[in-house]
Description:
The chain is an all-alpha fold and 178 residues long. The chain is 73% helix and 0% strand. It has a domain of 114 residues.
Amino acid sequence: MWGPRTFIRKRLDAFARQFNYDMAYTHQILDAGLKPFKAFSCLFTLAAYRHPQMPLAPWFAVKWVATHSEDCGPCQQLTINMARQQGVPLEVIKAITRGDLKGMGSDTALAYQWAHAVIRPDSQEANTNAMRQHIKARWGEQGLISLTLAMAGARSFPMVKRALGHNQDCQILDYGDQ
């Protein structure tokens, strides 16, 4: 007989296999109890929210910036793998990860620069108000909210991993093209 923990473990393991990602930290939370795991699992919903009219590349760009600000490699690799699986062109993914604003295109560059300004308000890109207005003009309130929630969710996972002692490894990023 399968209980809720067994079902959740199987889903976590399937995700780990699908994206070649270590989910040990999620198992640690689940082992602590269903209540803490239920609270943690809200992050999955937060990070996955994207309004249907919000393009993938800018959405992944803010996730990349958020993850990169918190993580050395595994969550960054997960972001790359998820972007590839959802159809973001490889050249755009590479431009995002390298900070190549021209290569990622103007819409994606706007989201990328805005995420940097939000996460690092002391940066040279700190004109968040003007960028926020451009984002709202381009994708509306729903687009702004999509980018905001994606950024907040993506940033949370590496922080949780690090706090639990699971963010120890660096890695070379693999784009799947070699």
